[in-house]
Design goal:
This protein has 266 residues and is α/β, with parallel strands linked by helices. The protein contains nine helices and five strands, in the order αβαβαβαβααβααα. The chain has one domain (9-263): Rossmann fold (3-Layer(aba) Sandwich), CATH 3.40.50. It is globular, with a radius of gyration of 19 Å.
């Protein structure tokens, strides 16, 4: 998939604010389920899952998200979800997670709404994230099973340098766009959420009690093996990962020329 065009920021300014809440902006397999599950455990917060996922809609809270978002008025849908969630849960802030590719227009409106708290979640181990993404696509298994302690031969995918580089370009393009639009966003790395007190600064920035104990229902991402072991060609993965990062930075600097768009289509 190509990074695609970034929506017009000026157009988003014409829409009314969506409301006071937060959104976890991320890419797939970034540990967002773990983070959102932690936030949902806070007594002042409620957190839905991927409200704008075209394939499924879920929630970490006990409040159902009231169906799939309509294409005609997605912002009204979001306002309704938040209003009904507050009434049912007494939460001060209602949030959800939004992948870059799920609904770019909604993301742009949220970035334009200065009352919206933007949490930009990323994962430092990009190779592990991409391996997890490719495995989920290959197996159609997006939730980690309870018994995932062993690596079965069928749970391996081939490493492809062009596709991995394109993946890094896609992430870098969208993350830089979010940072340009909202330099005040709250940046979180998945790896930093795994220690007990790691979320205290985030809770403080959200304006809720940072002393609350958070016990997530969702388990963290698979970390038991090296990312290279998830590939059928681990040596090529180790070599390719080293050259893909500088290549992605260079490609991002060159911009979206026709040749670049063709190369970064994954």
């Amino acid at each position: 998939m190509s990074p695609g065009p970034i929506p017009n920021a000026a157009a988003a300014q014409t829409e009314p604010p969506v409301g006071d809440g937060f959104v976890v902006v991320c890419d797939a397999r970034s540990g967002s389920g773990y983070l959102c599950s932690c936030l949902e455990r806070h007594p002042e917060l409620a957190c839905h899952d991927e409200l704008f996922n075209p394939n499924c809609v879920g929630s970490f809270s006990g409040v159902e998200p009231f169906g799939r978002a309509p294409e005609t008025d997605p912002l009204a849908y979001l306002q309704n979800v938040r209003r009904r969630t507050r009434a049912a849960s007494c939460a001060r802030l209602v949030g959800f997670k939004l992948h870059f590719r799920h609904h770019p227009a909604v993301l742009e409106h949220l970035l334009a709404d200065l009352g919206e708290r933007i949490i930009l979640l990323s994962r430092r181990d990009k190779l592990a994230q991409w391996a997890s993404y490719q495995l989920a696509k290959a197996t159609s298994q997006w939730a980690r099973p309870k018994n995932d302690s062993d690596i079965h031969p069928l749970k391996r995918v081939p490493f492809k340098l062009r596709r991995y580089t394109a993946y890094l370009v896609h992430q870098r393009t969208w993350e830089q766009h979010v940072l340009r639009r909202r330099p005040d966003c709250l940046r979180v790395d998945y790896e930093d959420t795994l220690s007990p007190d790691s979320l205290v600064p985030l809770l403080h920035d959200l304006g809720v009690d940072p002393r609350a104990e958070l016990r997530p229902a969702s388990r963290r991402q698979f970390t038991g093996h090296s990312a290279y072991e998830r590939f059928t060609n681990p040596r090529w993965a180790a070599f390719g990962a080293r050259i893909a990062k500088p290549a992605a930075r260079l490609i991002a600097l060159l911009g979206a020329t026709p040749l670049i768009r063709r190369f970064t289509s994954y």
